[in-house]
Amino acid sequence: MNTHRIRFARTVSLAFGLALATGACKPKQIATVEPAPVPAPAPAPEPAPAPVEVKAPARVYPDAPAPTAAKPFDFPATTTFTLPNGLAVYVVENHEVPVVAVQLAVRAGTMDDEHVAEFAAAMLGEGTKARTKAKIDEAIEFVGSSIGGGAGVHVSNFGSRVLKPNLMLALTLLADEVMNPIFPEEALNKLKGQAKTALGFAKSQPGNLAESLFGTVAYPEGHPYGRPFTTEAQIDRVTVLDVRRFHETFYRSNNAFLILAGDITQKEAESMVRRTFGKWKPVPAGSSLPANPLNQYKSYDLPKELTVHLVDRPGSAQSEIIVGNLSIARSHADWAALQVANNILGDDASGRLFVDIREKRGLTYGIYSRVDEGQAPGTFAITTRTRTKSTGEMLAAIFEHIKTIRSEAPADEEFVAATKKMVGSFPLEIETADQIANRLREALVYDLPTDYWKVYAQQLTEVDAAAVHGVARKYIHPIPHVVVVGNAGKVEKQILAVFPKAKIIKYDGELKKL
User: Fold this and answer.
1) CA-based nearest residue to 338, from 190, 475, 177
2) In this structure, what CATH number is given to the domain that contains residue 435?
3) 334 and 450 housed in the same domain
4) Which residue(s) pair with 323 in the sheet?
5) pTM
6) Do the Cβ atoms of 472 and 300 come closer than 8 Å?
7) Binning pLDDT at 50, 70 and 90, where does residue 41 land?
8) How confident is the model at residue 60 (pLDDT cuts 50, 70, 90)?
9) Among 237, 268, 283, which residue terminates a domain?
10) Are residues 227 and 313 in the same domain?
11) How far apart are CA 54 and CA 72, in angstroms?
């Protein structure tokens, strides 16, 4: 038998059977398997390109536009009238927005009685004979406003700021508080507790200690501008009867004035004020108000030898410093010139003190000078704080600037910049009804003409460099009062190194002499 034929026949038969099983018409060709390709070797990495320094194009900032000419501005005109009971009313019209600022000032303050004045002013809002405190608060808050007040040194102030349709409500409530307070005992006790808490906090602050001591050494003993810290015993001694007597004495229609500034005319004001304040009682006929306590001080002395008043606070890391002296009253003719001198020296961050002692020397975070207002002479003062180890260096720097401003007239560029800044910023200080009312109240408190603010800017422009030098020599004294609050054990030697001939008086934390 031919085995080759048999293997071939089986092979054919098997292939034919498979073809039938798959339904194919002809035998399926068997694909050949190609060998897997061999991967090509990875290309060698190209060398990194050399770094190329790319500079950002320089920014070119356009020059600031040249300042335009100052826009004209004018303090609004003031009209006035007086009720039959003696209440003086001042109206400043400004109809840009429908808002009216109300300010009532009673000519009595802490200079008349330090403690009772504050309690009397604070207790006016504690209810009246006709309205409880809750009803007063609810009524004024319903129209989105409030009534507040407090005692200052010369006057006690009360006021509100309301939309014009709510002006009558505000005047009604304010008049009721001023004329018909009930002074509840529980309210006074609460205020006493708050006053004692505030007293304790004030004594813990080195800045408050320095200010209190500066006032007592600058002014004659007992002067209203230079009283020492009150005591808890003095606070506790105030009674409701004291508060009522103070109110009965000073809260009189002919010892007060009312300012209405904003969207109001004099005709509208007269109608509303007569209806609300018309029954306020004046000082009784044949009686008189107590004399102004400032009148008894006829002269003021300046120090004749340099004295450093040193308050010892052993744990202090810094020294609080005030250097200054008595200057002039707010109504003095030299006020404008002294303001320019103070602006050049240190009124803000552009002043000599700040630029030199803070920016160049780095002795402090802030240093400023000021001139305080007063019916009697106020004070000129330089205030700052510095690290304990730089106390002596700071005092030396301050005295350098005092010497310079006294000995040299300011450069024309510096002088012109200061006056332009003061004149240019003034319109921003009289933009709102409240600001205008505040300015007018200032004029009335310090016996300035009611048109004072209309000519204020002109007064500044009339000041020249020679006048600035003159007032600096007059009112910034070469032997000022010096107050330092800090670690006496670490700063006393520094003080003597700067001022070998200075007299040093030490105090404890209660400002009692050691």
Assistant:
1) 475
2) 3.30.830.10
3) yes
4) 382, 482
5) 0.84
6) no
7) low
8) confident
9) 283
10) no
11) 52
Q: Are residues 239 and 336 in the same domain?
A: no
Q: Which residues lie across from 88 on neighbouring strands?
A: 82, 257
Dist CA 311 CA 326 (whole Å):
21
Residue 231 main-chain phi, psi, to 5 deg: -120, 160
Together in a domain, 242 and 379: no
Mean per-residue pLDDT, 373-381: 97
Give the integer Cα–Cα distance in Å for 83 and 374. Answer: 28
Q: Which tokens hold the place of 43?
A: 């290309």
Domain check: are 279 and 313 in the same one? no
What HEC string does 225-238 produce? CCCCCCCHHHHHHC
CA 89 to chain centre: 29
- Residue 376's domain spans which residues? 307-507
For residues 224 and 322, state if they share a domain.
Answer: no
Cα gap 23→57, rounded to integer Å = 79
pLDDT digits (tens, 9 = 90+) for 204-238: 999 999 999 999 999 999 999 999 999 999 999 99
Which of 228, 308, 227, 199 lies closest to 511 in space, CA to CA? 228
Q: Is 302:324 a contact under the CB 8 Å cutoff?
A: no
**Tokens in use for 355?**
């630029």
Same domain, 333 and 451: yes
- Is the residue at 31 inside a domain? no
Residue 63 pLDDT class (50, 70, 90 cuts) = confident
What residues does 104 pair with on adjacent strands?
A: 158, 258
- Is it the case that residue 10 has pLDDT exceeding 70? no
Angle (nearest 5°) at CA 207 between 226 and 214: 30
Number of structural domains in the chain:
2
Report the SS3 class of residue 100.
Answer: strand
The answer to whether residues 349 and 259 belong to one domain is: no
* Residues 419, 468: Cα–Cα separation, whole Å: 11
